């Protein structure tokens, strides 16, 4: 896929999503520059995950457009999203508990592998492909300090470890855009700090762009290049972390009113 320097990687334009009479997204627009980390924040019900579901093609918007690298994303079916360079994690873990960590991570390479009747007719190409996938999965696990768990089943592993395993699986498709849906949910403070470091480092190492939904404001402010603030399906502010922290409307709607000084 050819990279276009003068275009944002992701362009969301006037997206509206309705569920009957409920407006989940009401004319949301923002753009994401290649190589950046953009966070979507807002109260529960603001429409953040709905937007993720539009970008990953689980939802079809009522109106508006989404372009990815200059291409009409809404023209793609959901099963083509990963092979076109977009991967995501979910709020709830989607790992297979009975499989090993290595096997779970290898599943993430499925959009990039070749199959079908002709591949199945020849044992050697499939065996060679599996070997390459296994080697790649082990490299990703090592990069995320998970290689010691490779042979272990996912069932019974600590929650923070499972979160990183899901992140490792998402990297297996070599995404250009990574959607992270509340990756810090359920983590301890030390795990959140570690995750923030991992997100910024894999962005740089894997040359990815990251769109993040997160409620942990400390992490959001530390990793984000830009932040979009949502309320009731609409954007109420957009800017750098410093601009968002000083935005009076954001403070009132989400971050909390500053406490008055007492004498």
Structural class: alpha/beta
Largest sheet, in brief, is:
6 strands, mixed
List the uncertain runs: 1-5, 116-123, 259-263
What general form does the structure show? globular
Chain oligomer state: single chain
How helix-rich are the residues, as a percent range? 25-40%
Topology:
Elements: E1 10-19, E2 22-32, E3 37-41, H1 48-55, E4 63-68, E5 71-72, E6 86-88, H2 101-107, H3 117-120, H4 123-143, H5 159-171, E7 177-181, H6 189-205, E8 209-213, H7 217-223, E9 226-231, E10 234-239, H8 241-245, H9 248-255
Parallel strand pairs: 3-8, 3-9, 6-7, 7-8
Antiparallel strand pairs: 1-2, 1-4, 4-5, 9-10
Helix pairs in contact: 2-4, 2-5, 6-7
Question: What's this entry about, in short?
Answer:
Helix content is 34%, strand content 22%. By secondary structure, it is α/β, with parallel strands linked by helices. It has a six-stranded mixed β-sheet, with helices on both faces. Strands 2-1-4-5 form a four-stranded antiparallel β-sheet, with helices on one face.
């Amino acid at each position: 896929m050819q990279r276009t320097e003068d275009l944002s990687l992701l362009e969301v334009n006037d997206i509206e999503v309705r569920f009957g009479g409920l407006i989940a997204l009401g004319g949301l627009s923002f753009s994401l520059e290649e190589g950046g980390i953009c966070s979507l924040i807002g109260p529960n019900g603001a429409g953040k995950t709905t937007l993720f579901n539009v970008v990953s093609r689980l939802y079809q918007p009522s109106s508006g457009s989404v372009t990815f690298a200059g291409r009409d994303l809404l023209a793609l079916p959901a099963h083509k999203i990963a092979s076109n360079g977009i991967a995501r994690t979910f709020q709830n873990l989607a790992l297979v508990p009975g499989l090993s960590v290595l096997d779970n991570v290898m599943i993430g390479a499925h959009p990039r592998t070749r199959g079908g009747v002709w591949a199945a007719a020849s044992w050697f190409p499939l065996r060679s492909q599996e070997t390459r996938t296994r080697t790649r999965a082990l490299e990703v696990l090592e990069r995320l300090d998970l290689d010691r768990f490779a042979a272990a089943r996912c069932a019974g592993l600590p929650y923070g470890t499972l979160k990183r395993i899901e992140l490792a699986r998402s990297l297996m498709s070599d995404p250009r855009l990574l959607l992270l849906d509340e990756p810090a949910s359920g983590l301890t403070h030390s795990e959140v700090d570690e995750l923030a470091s991992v997100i910024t480092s894999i962005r740089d190492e894997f040359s990815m762009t990251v769109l993040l939904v997160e409620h942990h404001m400390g992490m959001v402010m530390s990793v984000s290049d830009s932040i979009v603030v949502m309320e009731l399906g609409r954007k109420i502010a957009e800017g750098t972390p410093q601009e968002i922290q000083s935005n009076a409307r954001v403070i009132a709607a989400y971050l909390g009113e500053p406490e008055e000084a007492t004498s």
